Amino acid sequence: MYFRNIDLELLYWKASDSRKPLILRGARQVGKTSAVSLFAKNYHQFISLNLEKKQDADLFYKHSAIKNLVEAIFFLYNCDISHKHQTLIFIDEIQDVPHAINILRYFYEDYPEIHVIAAGSLLETILSENISIPVGRVEFSVLRPVSFYEFLGASNQKQLQSMIDDVDVPEYAHNRLMEYFYNYSQIGGMPEVVENYVKNKNLIRLNKVYDSLLTAYQNDFEKYAKNNAQINILRYVLASMGSEIGNRIKFQHFANSNYGSKEVGEALRVLEKAMLLKLVYPTISTKFPIQKDYKKSPKLQFLDTGLFNKLAGIQPEFMRNNQVESVHHGKVAEHIVGQELLTQSYSPLHDVQFWTRENKDANAEVDYLYEFEGLLIPLEVKLGASGRLRSLHSFIDKAEHNIGIRVSSNYFSVENVKTIGGKNYKLLNVPFYLLHSLVKVVEANV
Fold first, then answer.
1. Is the pLDDT of residue 339 over 50?
2. For 218-298, where are the E strands, in sequence order?
3. Which of 283, 286, 293 shows the shortest CA–CA distance to 398?
4. Which domains does the chain have, with CATH numbers?
5. Is the pTM of this model over 0.85?
6. Paired strand residues for 164
7. What is d(CA 320, CA 422) in angstroms, rounded to the nearest whole number?
């Protein structure tokens, strides 16, 4: 099984003096169950409950008192309750017994020595319902698709991982790293896809895996859509993602449909709850606090770039190109950068945003804003001369700092540049593979 960085996050949680039951969030098939099962090797005893199974669900229905519930769990799973402080209890598919979420508070209050992790493939879709979330007595982490750094680990490229960690990547390793990143951009980061690719190195075989994943997501619609009409809209919206990702979207007549703004908006927000996509709204801020403009058209950040490539039908394009920026008019490059930025944190509050300036004279749009120690740093995804970064220049002219980032297939470099408005700034030319260590790159150059 490939290495997931979530192991480190979970180890910090395990060692924390203020540890609370952890709810691990994330879309279906991002590897939550596998990650917890591997992490369980750090414990003397591991009890795995799946609330889709009647015998496990019945434990939470039959035992309302936490003492009786804990004793029953240890007894039925033949574990020594005297070693409860060395025990991890994993409650999977917790959304199938919603009141079990509230029971987590009693693990925190009465059995803090027991380590408890809960997860669920459709957990997000019930969190906004009449479910009692034990605020202050649980904590959350989000697991997303495999990052490029983790993809290297899956490919047994520990030397390349080490180079990225050190930031100072030798020039002779650049092409090899870009080859791996190009492959990663094509297949994406869904764990089953990565595992299949690493094992077989066969891109054709992956189509069955993509189809299986997308079919599973469609089948889930029946579990959380409010009616049959919404199921049809959800299916249409999912199938149309490939043509809309990378664009500023309108809810009204989304993807040339006859659907109205309200029904499309509801469908997109349902998919957002299921963590299949993010609605990324623009901001006009050049400094904190970030104020998103919900009146402006958002962009779509899909769960995974490999699935996006499949939905858009652009996989053959990768055979005709050798740079990520050249595929699908640069939309793949922009999307994979967003995916990489999201993997840099396990916080459910972690987000991506882009910047716009819209006026009569000229519009400007920066692909992403990178947050670093109180600074909002503009980040563009493109090749070309620094003079072509007009939107980034517009941002720098308004910003209280003088640093910008361009992500591309080129080797790392730093340029001293002047904006069109005459302001001097430092442009960091960052190769895609260094996004994992972007905080170190920026720290060394601020």
1. yes
2. 277-280, 282-283
3. 286
4. 6-142 (3.40.50.300), 148-275+304-336 (no CATH), 354-443 (no CATH)
5. yes
6. none
7. 40
